[in-house]
Amino acid sequence: MNTPEIKDWHAHVYFDAASRDAAWALRERIEKTFPIEMGRFHEKPVGPHPCFSYQVLFKPDQLAPILSWLVLNRGDLTVFVHPNTGQQLADHRDRAIWLGRQETLDLSVLPD
Question: 29 in the Ramachandran plot: left (φ > 0), alpha (ψ -120 to 50) or beta?
Answer without folding.
Answer: alpha
